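Supplementary Data S3. Sequence and structure tokens for construct A.
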Amino acid sequence: MFKSTKSTKYIKSIAAIASLVLIGSVAACGPADSKASDPDIARSYDVSKVQKDDAVAALVPEAVKKTGELTVGVNVSYAPAEFFAADGKTPVGYEIDFSKALAKVMGLNAKIMHAQFDSIIPAIGSKYNVGISGFTVNAERMKSVDFIAYANAGLSFEVRKGNPTKVDTKNLCGKKVTLETGTVGEPIMEEAKKQCAANNDKPLEIMSFKEQTDATTALLSGRADVMYADTPVAGYAAVKNPGKLEILENSKDSEPMGAAVKKGDTAMLKAVKAGIDKLMKSGVYKEILKKWGVEDVAIEKTVVNPQV
């Protein structure tokens, strides 16, 4: 039912975050400011060294230039891509750093706007200039937005340590699967649910949550048998809950992830693509990914509306 791909490389990369968290905690023992005392904030990429690129800035639509801001729709609950630091109010993560760096290159300041995941795409072009929130590119989403693909990531199944409910990813009938509402994994699970019913097998129950953190909690608490999420997200959950979670080897092959702009907004599409291209060429893009231990999601060049 599902293709298999190795997720081990993601886990090794994200495991590096755990050691950084410990280092940050030790450093915080003495007097320090809030940034030094919060390892997640301290680990964030320093975007102050990212400079405006005049050629990129020239492509930014005048209406956006006048505001001086790049409004970015983000669901800040999808660690390590975007989540709130220990202070409960500071958005951090590799896509937060990426968004801030993108805005700087465009000659703007990033305005990170937290929203429920499934509400972001419908509001791109009205409330947000761009959506950067772990969006997997698919045909359904491309009906309403254009994508600039900037990364690749797969999907993984995650269970409690030891797989106590004996989850078999080739047959999820009779199991409870938790995931975040609106993610690309949801229709995949819906199809699996239909297959169970068609085969007169035990029903597959989908537990869909507006926030990824709630989906993870459902797994940890035992309310769900298995979680289905982007591999970097699943890996980070395992790191943040040592000895409690593990990733099963079966996962969906990697697919493009992209920044979303309003469908048909050619000017914004060109500006955002040029900005991301600049970050890739300058090395900032890979530096940000390395900071968060997810360099395995990197691609060499952007692709507009890739075939999926």
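Construct B, processed identically:
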Amino acid sequence: MGSWRTSTLGGVTTAPASTALSWIGPGRDDAARDAPTLVVLHGYGSSEAQMIALSPLLGMFLGRSARVIAVRGEYPAPGRRGFSWYPGDRYSQPPDADIAAVADRVAAAVQEHSDRAVWLGFSQGMCTAITVLRRRPELVSALVALSGFSFDAPQPGDPQLARDAAAGRGVPCFYGRDPTDPAIPGFAAEWARRFLADHTALEEHSYPGMGHSLSPVEIADVVPFLRQHLAS
């Protein structure tokens, strides 16, 4: 079993940018709070704009009343044009306080516009989406976890998630990945798989040879899951 490198930050050393949101669908007013909502979180070095660029695919599962909220990572990704969800080295686990603070800021930004949503995260964005679930489970109606991981820092919602899953009331979760994804440490992907198996109603999918990406086959599997959980 491997492990992350220990972060040398000792806490956030650079103030995060304000949480930026982009939209598809109904607007930001209070009348749209109850619209079926998909929150999408990008991977390391990417941006919310690249997630919104997938909009031609969204027509396959979004009804007219549904909307997408794409969130931008708060930190610049060194050597990339895009953003990171956490400060520092992407191969190190941030301090527990930073992991919690990022999830809480993202949750608060989304909660200004939606009380409950389906959350989709890719790669590092999957980690943030899972952490939101683990800290604010009432905000997550379903989870789509793609080609990513979760840090093992305990979160306050973990015990209740485990009880709900054991009682057959777990949050629906689609987890898709290539079992030999070269970008995600195997120990981190396995920890996420075991956590989701014990804390959600897990629907696990394996896509050998896909690499660290999305494939047409995976998208075809995700679509009915989203269609079901974004029904108005």
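The two ends are 43 Å apart (CA to CA). Confidence is low (pLDDT under 50) at residues 6-14.
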